[in-house]
Amino acid sequence: GAGVSQSPSNKVTEKGKDVELRCDPISGHTALYWYRQRLGQGLEFLIYFQGNSAPDKSGLPSDRFSAERTGESVSTLTIQRTQQEDSAVYLCASSWTGASNQPQHFGDGTRLSIL
Amino acid sequence: DQQVKQNSPSLSVQEGRISILNCDYTNSMFDYFLWYKKYPAEGPTFLISISSIKDKNEDGRFTVFLNKSAKHLSLHIVPSQPGDSAVYFCAASAYDKIIFGKGTRLHILP
């Protein structure tokens, strides 16, 4: 079956522009996560969706960052007024229920470069 | 405040020998630990995990050891193969929260 799909795979944009990143999780997975990986750094948690519960937004670095998820399907991560420090690989992952013993399945990420 | 630490940014091991990757954590509430492997330009893939009620889990060439009193876990790969060259992330979870370490880049030398 299909894995987690992210688009675009690469995005180059000018500072100050808005960007929208998309994630298609594995069908049936109710939990969806967004992470950011800056160069040479680990995975930084951004936001977590679980079913119809209110999302855990505790990792979003500023109010320029927001994310939506439609039901238990597609999610979009939006970064407004991009800054150079937003340059990173943005990874999406999904799992069946979000329980701690369930491995997350990752997409290949979107590499975002802010000029 | 890093709750999950991988203190070795990189490690080089001869092909055929044992690779040992280490991870330390600070939060005693973590109840599950996972290792992920990541190749360049790809997302991390799940490798092996261990529950906090166990001290060892083995899957083929991969074994994870957990020392709860020391808040330390390690991943052993034996024998190491060229395809094992990748970045390895340690992760710890509690409830629905998972924390990743910064990763260790493993180079398998011919």
Observed structural traits:
heterodimer; A: 115 residues; mainly beta; 10 strands; B: 110 residues; six-stranded mixed β-sheet; globular
What features would you describe in this structure?
The complex is a heterodimer of chains A (115) and B (110). Chain A is an all-beta fold. Chain A is built from no helices and 10 strands. In chain A, a hairpin with a 5-residue loop joins strand 6 and strand 7 (75-79). By secondary structure, chain B is an all-beta fold. In chain B, the strands form 2 sheets. In chain B, strands 2, 4, 5, 9, 10 and 11 form a 6-stranded mixed sheet that branches. A 5-stranded antiparallel sheet of chain B has the order 1-3-8-7-6, with no helix packed on it. In chain B, strand 4 (32-38) and strand 5 (45-51) form a beta hairpin. The N and C termini of chain B lie far apart (38 Å). The interface between A and B is medium-sized, with 24 and 25 residues.
Summarize the structure in short:
The complex is a heterodimer of chains A (115) and B (110). With 115 residues, chain A is mostly beta strands. Chain A contains no helices and ten strands.
